[in-house]
Amino acid sequence: MSNNEMPTIELDYPIIRGTGDKQKEIKEFTLRRPMGGDLRGQSLIDISMAKVDSIAVVLPRISNPVIHEHEVKQMDASDLMDIGLTIAGFFTKAKFQSQAETEATPIA
Fold first, then answer.
1. Which candidate among 6, 12, 18, 28 keeps its CA 20 to 30 Å from the CA of 73?
2. How far apart are CA 80 and CA 93, in angstroms?
3. In terms of Cα–Cα distance, which of 67, 20, 58 is closest to 37?
4. Three-class HEC string of 26-47
């Protein structure tokens, strides 16, 4: 993941927002790289371990459209794990990401 990349999260179980004629289904959203202020009040260890309470606080600060805290707590576990792993991936320095990608590439 490059520094400017805004990964798209595709949900297996969409978020239903609103009721009646105003009901909207959110099937995907993007994440921007968190800045220091987005992480305020949270432990980097808890975020990198994909702890639900930490994700619920940070996700509304970095998602587009905004995914609200109560929506995070109602998410399917597989979608939540995907989000947590994506957020944790932001904490890897670019030089280590490219090294890991190179080492993970199978040689034919």
1. 6
2. 23
3. 58
4. EEEEEECCCCHHHHCCCCHHHH
% of residues, the chain, pLDDT over 70: 83
User: For residues 33 and 47, what is the distance between their CA atoms, to the nearest angstrom?
Assistant: 13
Measuring CA to CA, how many Å separate 15 from each of 28, 51, 70, 71?
9, 20, 11, 7
User: From CA 18, how far away is CA 15, in angstroms rounded?
Assistant: 10
Residue 106 has what DSSP assignment?
A: P
pTM for the model stands at: 0.79
C-alpha to C-alpha distance for 27 and 65, rounded to whole angstroms: 11
How far apart CA 1 and CA 76 sit, in angstroms, is 24
